[in-house]
Structure formats: structure tokens, C-alpha cells
Amino acid sequence: MKFKISLKLVLCLGLLFGSLAGPLESSQAQISRDLRNIFQSMLDDLDDDLRLKFEEALETDSSVIKLTREQFRRFRQSPINPFDGLKSAAVNQSGTIIALKFELPDIRNRPIHPLERQNSGLLASLRPAVKNAAKSSVVVYSDNRSVAMGTIFREDGYILTKASELDDTETIRCKLFNSIEKRASLVEINKDHDLAILKIDAKGLIPAKWANQSASIGNFLLTPDPFGNVLALGTFSVPTRSTAVGQQAFLGVQPETTPDGVRVSAIQPGTASALAGLQDGDIITKLNQIVINDASTLVKAIRDRAPGDKIEITFSRNGATQTTTATLAAREYSGEQAARFKMMNRLGAVPSQRYDNFPSVFQHDAPLFPEECGGPITNLDGDVVGINIARLGRAASYAIPASTIQSLISKYEIAPELRQLKVQARQ
Amino acid sequence: MSFYTNNYLIQRWSRIALPLAITLALLGTAEADGNDSIKSLKAIGEKVAQVVSQNRDACVALVDGFGSGSGVIVSETGLVLTAGHVIENTNLRSFEIVLSSGRRVKAKPLGYNLNNDLGMAQILEPGPWPHAKINQDSDLNRGDWVVSVGHSGGWELGRDAPVRTGRFLKMENSQLVTDAVLIGGDSGGPLFNLDGEVVGIHSSIGDSVSENRHIPIELFIADWQRLEDGEQWGMLANLGRSEQRRPLIGVTVDLTADECIVTSVYRNSPAQIAGIRRGDIITQFNNSPIATGQQLIDAIRKQTAGKSYPISVRRGGRTLVFEITPQ
């Protein structure tokens, strides 16, 4: 029950019915930006031989990949195989080489059913809600390509945006609500959160009005562009959490809330919990000095640490209280499952170049494109509840909550000039 | 084909026609005025929050150590609805249900009907279990808002099943199609109406974010007793690409070979029932010679599902002739 069988069938048929009899394609179609991203994201999951083929295609800017029958067989079996993007397959005269031509369906300009949540009528009717927030939003250009959105957080031209979409060798410009374009300089990058701070030469801008209350399940969320349009409507899906898988600390227990504390089970040999001597049925009551009343407190207490950290665990077993020390491990996922998920994630969506390893994000389901991340996301009152930071894929987008943003930019609360003066005064 | 023309569908469509016209008229006026639209969306959001808080404990993950699917508890005694393909793929020895609290309980698979992707399981520990109501009246109309819950990407420690919303767009191949986005791991999870009743179970997806397919709850109601009795039948269909369901025999063939070699045979498929095995070389279908896999695909596509045809295969040195009924 790894994933959907039915989906597998759907995808397989795409290939079965592809024409294998046609002549070999002579003209080599250019590779689109989205397809380029897909090819790039596949590289890690292909074997050396196949990876070379895709690297070659990226280098020569070709969307046609020629494989021998043996390579084709291996490619078909690979979980990362992007059947959704396969346009045609052609065999040469002698039947030894199969040319696969990839082309993505046009998901940016797909027709939207009038009943869909994203229908233009509904989105247009929501414009009044984002009237003010839109003015805190900018479009960020790297050279002449729009690569991201940005969020104004100070009236004198300080703007937050998504760092990994910027190319630091290129000129950055921001387009404001009044269509005026300004050159921007890069002030600072926070790699963990994938945020960049830009500065434009301006006065009297409208900074984001941060919401007092964080968004919650059931809230509809709006992503405005600077010109007052609602780009996408989404629903709050998952409360704020860390998605930093590689750096996520892992104890290796299955927690369950009980009146006495958190009962743990499913302890696997070799995991941090087993090495610390925990057993199925133990009830954890404290981690270091933190009292553990429910499963989510336990999860959070562990998430707040890094792999390699030592924690003291107080637990009861058969009524007797004991303590032990565990060394937290890093969490890992199996390769094939991850690869298959990556493939499904691209159905109908273009994931951001960086879509994981965020320390603090909430999840929503607005269908954003990578270049629509970096700007404000609001509730229906028009208050900014966060900054869109990534499109994970088909079913999810991430936003950094306003509270996290506010603490990250707290040092910008005083204008840098004033700070400078203070330092001088002290000297 | 009975799949399309059964009574259930005809009744359903005739019920839909009128309410749809009214709904569209209402939407038209509501969306003309922004403030009304924002207000009504807020009201919908409040209902969504209510649907989730009412049913959170009934939404579960099914895990077997290899992967996970989703499901929903629908009775005090611990009956769980899920997708047929989730149950069919479950490792029967160590199959567990993870509740929202993080508690894991042993469960056993009951029946499945792969024709409609229906599946049922039973929690083995005594209840009473928190459970969701199912919609008995089949009163979901096109354009109605729906709430989707499921463990996208598999069960994840510290993350409740993500909540998504969308609207019921159409019926296709007797499944509900919505724009409440699904992905692997969601299979088997519940689709709720705004009254918090289960109206569908997540089944499959297509290329676009507006192609999310859910099994209508009525199909579960129709097969309820057989599923509860543990009966397992049917085969998975091509649920995606086409409006018209093409006849299938349930094999995969090697398209790169110079012969029509069967590389796999699906369980309970017409091919398996006929006696075809992996490794067989298909030489004739309906008295016409078959030289490649593509020729077989083309030949089957021209036929009618439900009719029987002769099919010849070479196995070892022998030629065998079977009777096959594409579905």
C-alpha cells in the first residue's frame, strides 16, 4: 500500500499507448524552465548511466533523450520516471534506440472549470479583502525574469523574499503596487528559512500589517499580487511545524497520550529510544525539565533539539519512576518511497527549487507557482498571516507564520542609520 | 456496459440537474458583491473548522511497515472505510491503524471490491470508537464545497492529516471528481460535506490539480454487507485518462520486444481468470495474428467489454487457446 495502484496504472498506460513506431525525432525541442527543474530534481534518484543521459540533455538544452532498449527498460522501472511529462517515444530504423520526448502539459494556462475553487469570478470577488495587503506585495525580478514575490516590512524600502529563487550574479529589481520598478540591493540572507532581505530606495511604502492571531484549520487564505489581484485561494492545512527532515531530531517512538503521561511503543532496535533502554509501554513524564502531558508536547520537545543532542528522559515502568539519557538521531526516509512521492508531487504542479528543510512553516493548499512565493499571504480580513515560502508540490504550499517572521526581523525594528548612531555614541 | 448505465447513476444525475441551476443562480449573485462573497467564504471556513474538529479522531492512517494509506472510522465498533487498493496491498500480518492521538491499534482487513476501489477494515480492540457519520441521502450537488482529510505522503509523526477544501465538479466513471487536491498516501481518506458527513473516499488522481477522484459513499452502502463479510472481488480499472472506459484484460506486455510477451498478470483480472500466465507469448486474439504488444493493445481496444473472445498463447513448446472476457 505504498501509494496508489490506480495512479500507477494511469501512468503506465500513458506509455503503453505512446507511439513506438514513428521515425526518430530529428528536431530537438528546447527544454522549458519547468521541465529543466524536473530533470534536475530527477538526477539524484537515477542510476549513473541514466543520470548521464539527463545531464547531457540539460547541457545541450534538449527535451529528447535517446536510450538503448536496456536503458529504457531500467528507466521504465525507476520510481522517478516522469510518465506525466512523456510526450512521445520513437524507435529508430534498426530498432536499437528509443527516443523519448518530454513535454509538460500547460499547467500555467490550464482552463479552469467555473465551479472550481480557483475560478476567476470567485477570486475577483475577494479582491476587496486584499486591497491593503496587496500594496505590501512586490514582484521580484532577477534580470528580466519574474522569479518571486516579496513582502515590504518597513516603509523605507525593506523587503523580504525567497532567497533560493534569486541569482546573486544578476540585477534584482522590485515592481511595486503602482507599477514603479526599483533596483534592489541584497542586505542579508537567512539560509535556514530561505529568506532574503532586499532594500530599495523608497519612502512611505506600506509595510505588511501582521495578523495578531495565527491562522488555523478552516481559515481561507489569500495570496495577493501587488496590483490587487488574488493569485490563489487556499485552505489552512497543517499548523506550524518544522519540515527540516535532515536536521530533524528523532527519538524513534510511537507516542500516545494517556492520563499519566505519554505512553511509547513501536520501539525499533537500533533507534535512539532503544539504545537508551526504553521499552514498549513505558510512560514518559519528563524530558530534561519539561513536563510531558501529551504526545504533541513530546514531539515538540524533541523537534526543538538537533540530532546528536543528549536528553534526559524521566519515565515510569510498572509504576516505578526511572531516568535514562538518549542521544537523538537524525530522521531518514527510504529512497524509493521518496522518489515515487517526488514524481507524484509534480502532477499538475511545479515545485519550488527549494521546498523542504524549513524550521517553521504552516501548510496550506493554494496552488502557487514557484515565482509566486515570497509574498504575503492573508486571512479573509486582509491581515498578513505569513509569507509564502515554497510550493511543495501538487497538494501543498508552505508559508512562514507572521510570528516567526516578526522575530526574524526584530533587529530591523530600528532603522540601521539610528543603530549606527547608537554605536558611535557608545564609542 | 453496466458500469455506466446502472440505475444509481441515472437517478443521481436527474437529482442533480435542478439543484445545480439554483446553486449557480445563488453563486452568481453572491459573487457579484465582494463583501457578500468574503462573508459567505468566512461562513464556509467556520463550517470547515467544525467538520474537522468533529471528525479529527475518526480520521486514521493505515500503516503496515512498508507504507501507509488513510481511512475513516464509521462505526462505534471500529469499522474503517478505505480504498480497495489500500487493503489489497496491505501486509496482512502487521497491519495497524494510527489514530489522531498517535495511538496505534491492530486491525484486520475485511472485504474489498476492486472494481469500484472499495475497501473495509476492522479495528481489533474493543470500542466504542470515535466515528464519522456517513451521508445516506446522496444529496451532494455539483459546486458544493467539500473537505478532504488524509495522510498525504504517508503518516508523519507530529503532523495531523492535512486538511484541504475544494468543490464537487462532476461525476466521471461513477466517481466524484473534485478540486480538493490529493496525493499518494491520501488514498482511503474521507471526503466530507459541510455537514461533516462522509460523502466519498479518496481513490486516485490525474494530471491536473482539478482531477481528484473519490469513491461515492453510495457504492460502499450498496456493497456494505459483502464488504463486512470479508468478501474480496473485482479488479482495478484504469480510473484516469479516458472518459470512456476501454476494455482491459489485465496484463502488461513488453512493448520493446519482437513478440507479445506477457510481463505480468493482475490478480483477478480477465486474463488471470482465462488462465494466462506471466511469460506467455500471445500469438492470436479473436482469430487475428498478434506479432507485438502494440498489436494486442490495438486489438483489445476495438472490442467490447463483457464479450468473450478466443486468445492463443505459446507456453513452452505448446500453443494453448483460452476464452477471455475483457472488462
Descriptive account of the structure:
The complex is a heterodimer of chains A (427) and B (327). With 427 residues, chain A is α+β, with helices and mostly antiparallel strands. Chain A folds into three domains: 5-102, no CATH class; 120-240 and 347-412, Thrombin, subunit H, CATH 2.40.10.120; 249-330, Pdz3 Domain (Roll), CATH 2.30.42. In chain A, 22% of the residues lie in helices and 32% in strands. Chain A has helices spanning 5-16, 33-42, 48-60, 69-77, 120-125, 272-275, 295-303, 335-345, 402-408, 416-426; strands at residues 64-68, 86-91, 97-102, 137-142, 145-154, 158-162, 172-175, 181-190, 195-200, 220-224, 230-241, 249-250, 254-258, 261-265, 283-287, 290-291, 310-317, 320-327, 329-330, 361-364, 376-378, 384-393, 396-401. Chain A is globular, with a radius of gyration of 25 Å. Mean pLDDT of chain A is 83; it is low at 1-27. Chain B has 327 residues and is an alpha+beta fold. Chain B folds into two domains: 1-244, Thrombin, subunit H (Beta Barrel); 251-324, PDZ domain (Pdz3 Domain, Roll), CATH 2.30.42. In chain B, strand 5 (104-113) and strand 6 (118-123) form a beta hairpin. Chain B is elongated and about 70 Å long. The N and C termini of chain B lie close together (9 Å). The model of chain B is unreliable at 1-32 and 239-244 (pLDDT under 50). The chains are: A alpha+beta (427), B alpha+beta (327). The interface between A and B is large, with 77 and 86 residues.
